[in-house]
């Protein structure tokens, strides 16, 4: 049994290594096609190495014996996000071809709805897979917000930074880590962020319209996060009040007796 576990663990690690190799291959193809500069190469390679290292460590900690079909889809999305990240880094020197940028981003966004369905249909849903999917989504939004901010200003960065600010705040206020109830509105707002940022990034619409599109994305995100934080805060206050109420009731009963 121990040998089988070791063998399975090695297969899992091999899949993450293959993912890193595919990422490097994609960077090579992009670099050959557009003559990508050093900034794009360094950023893309750093993304590939970081993804491989973090994912390998997470799989090892979780004791995963198989990588799973849904995680393969998410890893494919991560590979595309790595390509988009390299293009954005390179865009500080030269603007990337719009068709290539939009194509890679659009496929990554479309696949966002695939990995979850695959996990449910194959019965391979795991907390690690859900976290992997969420982190890939969050990073793509961050990268897109960086790209759009170059044309519209630093305020756009609030879209990409909001999730990371929430995570940082949860270290100070642990009650922010409490599970949230399922919400179609939350999922819809999250999905719209990438679509609206891509619309603005493509520059197919007039600048004024694009500013309105991004402002709409930010407004929806602020509303969604604000609603969730308020719900968590109220739930935390109720939870904190229950032990106090129970203690007071116990004291009254003790005095009465």
UniProtKB/TrEMBL annotation:
Transmembrane regions listed in the UniProt entry: 20-53, 211-233
Keywords: Membrane, Transferase, Transmembrane, Transmembrane helix
UniProt xrefs under InterPro entries: CDP-OH_P_trans, CDP-OH_PTrfase_TM_dom, CDP_ALCOHOL_P_TRANSF_CS
Alphabetized PROSITE patterns for the sequence: CDP_ALCOHOL_P_TRANSF
Highest taxon in the source lineage: Bacteria
Record-stated family: Belongs to the CDP-alcohol phosphatidyltransferase class-I family.
Protein name: CDP-alcohol phosphatidyltransferase family protein
